[in-house]
Every structure is written in C-alpha cells, then in structure tokens.
Amino acid sequence: MKRRSYLRQCIPPIISVSAGAAFAGCTTTENDRSEPTPSEKVASPTTSTSARSDTSTTSQIRIETVLTGLTRPWGLTHLPDAQTQTSLLTERVGRLLLVDRSAGTYDRVSGTPDVFARGQGGLLDVCLHPSFPDPSWVYLTYAVTRDDDRTTTALGRGQLDREDPQLTDFEVLYRARPYVDSTGHFGSRVIVGPDDRLYITIGDRQFKNFGPDHVAQDRGNDLGATLRINLDGSIPDANPFVDNSAAKDAIFSYGHRNAQGLAIHPETNAIWQTEFGERDGDEINILTAGSNYGWPIADESCQYGSDEPIGVSHNDREDIIAPAYSWPCGSGGFPPSGMSFYPAQAADNPNGIAEWHGDLFVGGLASQSLARFRVDNQQIELVDNLLADRGWRIRAVATAPDTGEMYITTDSDNAELIRIGSE
C-alpha cells in the first residue's frame, strides 16, 4: 500500500519566533550535514538561568537554560515523577547523567557500558521500561567495536539506582549485524511502542552502492532498518519477517538511510520517524510493519556534489512507502534528529502552550531550528521554525507532559539543555 507524499519545498516559516528566524537549512552543504566527532575533553556542566522570551503564534514562550557545558548530548528522557522533575541524558563521550531539571544540577550515573566514541558513535539514546520504576530498567543504545575495529549499534539495559546513581545488572540485549568498517550512521534512536516493545533504528553504516543490492534493501542484515524487540531482548513472534529464513527476525521496517528520531502519535499510536537523506531528501515517515521506505532505490535525495537523483521518486514505486513529509533535493534539507509530539496533557498544563496541542516538533541540526508541524492524522504541515536565530544545532527533543514544558539539547562540545514553556 502506498501512502500519499506531502512534499514541501524549503520555504520561510509562516510564523517565526523572531524577525531573524529564517529557515537556515536552505544553504546546507555536505560539511554542514556531517556529524561532528565528540571531543575527548569532558566539560563540567554549570547551571544557567537566562530566561528569554520569543513570540510564537499567539503566545509568549519562555526559554531557559537548565544546564551548560554538556559534551555532545544525544538522548534525553524524563522520569515519570513530576514532583522531582528528573531526567536521564546521554553524552556521546560515554556519560549518562541523572538531571534535576528544577535545580539545574546532575549526578553522573555509573555502571554504563564501554562505548565506541569516535565519528558518530558513542553513548547514544536512552529510554525507560514502560512500568518504570517497577521494574527500574533503563535501556541504552550505543556504538561498540571489536578486535578488528569494526563497529555496530548495540542495545542494552540496566536497573537504575537513583539513591546511589548507578546502573546495576547491565546486560546486552542485541547487537546489529554485521559489524562494519565505518564510524557513521549508527541510527540508534529507541522508544517503547504502544505494544510495549522496543523500536530501535539502525543506520545503513554509510554504504554507497546505491542500487537494489544496497544493505538497506537486504533484509538478511539489520542495517538500514527499524528493529522491534521485546523488553527482555527476545524477538516478538508477530514481527513481519520471523517466518522468512532469508530475513532477520528483528526487522520491523527497512529501506532507511539513517533514522535518528522516533515518536508515538498521542491519538493514533502510530510510530513516526525522522530520517536523514543524502544530499537533502530528509524525511518524516510513519512506520508500518514489514514496509519498505525506499532507500536508496526510491528516494528524494541527490548525490553529494551534484543534482543527480540517487533513485527514482517514492511516487514512482507502488511497493514503496512514501514519507509523510520530505525535504527533496534542491530544498536545502533540514536534516532532522530528535522528535516529540505535544500531547493534550502538556497543552492543558499552566506551563504549557495550548495552541501546540497535537503538534509535532522536530530538532534540526544543520538548519539550526526547531520545526513545528501541524498534524492531521497522516497529513503534516510545517507552520513554524522556532529558535532559528539562536545558532543551535538541536539534537534531542522531549516533552514533559506533567509540567507542560519541552526540553531540547544542543549539539556541540559545550552544549546546553534548554527548557521551553509558556511565559
């Protein structure tokens, strides 16, 4: 079944947070899209409370710096206790932080796994068991290497002790196969779906043989795919390819380049995903079991250094699922990382912003903005590019429904955790 594609050209926002908030992604180059290598130097975060106001649609938004001095933060999740306002945050250099958002302080969590922290690797995403804190499992994705220096994406879990911040009983649940001689495209976003199973993105590891034999089109490996795994690391019997001896049992969807965002629609329970294109061609997808999302045989990207399309358009293939939204070649791209819906619980909170109810927010790296989309079932419309005058590469985006506030992390060696709420 083919989904209609709602493609947009790169345009200025309809309403922006300031006069200078133009859509920065329209001049993206290959270097702008590349992922920085994390520094070996680990900074000591300090607290800043410089609140600034921006105009957004019909209300004022409050922007506060919660932490500064972070080193390449990547993953962010909030613990389900509004009274304590506690979050877990990963840094690619291998640190897991237990953050007190109200105080602007953190404790380092020990017991994390060894990680491969070069290129785009490191300690990447974090999410919680759906019944947290009972049990207190915390799930991590991270890059690992072996003796021949080949690398892959791993998923593991440990139990969080908040009194003496540490992960205990840590165990590896899954390693994507094969290991590859590459330091990029690890994917690594992880969420717990509405079916209480883990969904994990695995990148294509930068393979460049753009054709039907590309790894993302080969279901016999885990690369260029979204995996679905039970909370204990086993494979669900309901996975779409478990009865196919030529396919990996963990695959839920395939044909992805490098997906770094996952979010659950608060009303439909559909799983949405952001994906990097090559040159432009960035995507927002709605995932369905067993579906092929096209990379690289059907795609809106061009090859770096030219206007030559990599594949045919999604619309030319009836067997390919087209994106809900795309930045096609020539648009300048975005490229998208973390994403979060803004549910009714957040919009109705005194600290929340009512007109954001049901909207989707996507962090932009090279575009240095927070894109706000109006969503109507599977149709999506860009209505704002927030924070585009700040110069922030935005990596993680996580709404705290209990407080009505949204949190983002910037992406640098001296990064920040930012809180956004109503004035």
UniProtKB/TrEMBL annotation:
Please provide an example of a Pfam family that matches this protein in its UniProt record. Answer: GSDH
Domain Glucose/Sorbosone dehydrogenase positions: 70-419
Biased region (Low complexity) positions are: 44-58
Sequence segments annotated as region (Disordered): 27-58
Q: Where are the transmembrane segments?
A: none
Q: What is this protein called?
A: Glucose/sorbosone dehydrogenase
Organism the protein comes from: Haloquadratum walsbyi J07HQW2
